[in-house]
Amino acid sequence: MKTFTDALLAASPAIPGLDATVVIPPRRMHFTLGVMSLDLDEDAPATADVSQAPTQAGQEKPRPTLEAAKQVLQELKPKIAEILGQEPLRVKLDRMDIMKPERRDDERAHVMWLGPAVDGESAKRLKRVAGESVKPSIRVLC
Questions:
Q1: What per-residue confidence (pLDDT) applies to 12?
Q2: Contact, 79 vs 133, CB < 8 A?
Q3: Around Cβ 69, how many Cβ atoms within 10 Å?
């Protein structure tokens, strides 16, 4: 990872907005596969923006708590394993961009991201996993 970040910093011409002050140490790099907003207090009443409307056949929608999220992830595990079969999910990160900064000024960028090419095989496989198993299950909590 250090080799990669060093190469970015040494790029010619320089990458606008990229300097050593904004490059994080390799140990802090991560993959974001999804984001969930959870209730902190398991016993607190549901917040106004969390619908308690029935989901299917009179079932109540679970509250977005850490325990509910862990249960959803456990339920997803066999679905994802079935989609992937015996082949591990490998995603080629061949696309790079910045998160759009405030006022669309590239000099104000503070997050750079890598991802798969939109139409590449890696992206298709990742979308299949996310689309067929993750999104419907996560929506139950959101």
A1: 92
A2: yes
A3: 16
**Do 24 and 4 contact (CB within 8 A), yes or no?**
no
Q: What number is the average pLDDT over the span 28-47? A: 68
Contact 39, 69 (CB under 8 A): no
What's the CA dihedral at 70, 72, 73, 76 to 10 degrees? 160
SS3 content of the chain, % helix, strand, coil (to 5): 40, 10, 50
Q: What is the pLDDT of residue 58?
A: 57
Q: Cβ distance 122 to 60 under 8 Å?
A: no
Residue scoring higher pLDDT (40 or 123): 123
d(CA 13, CA 78): 47
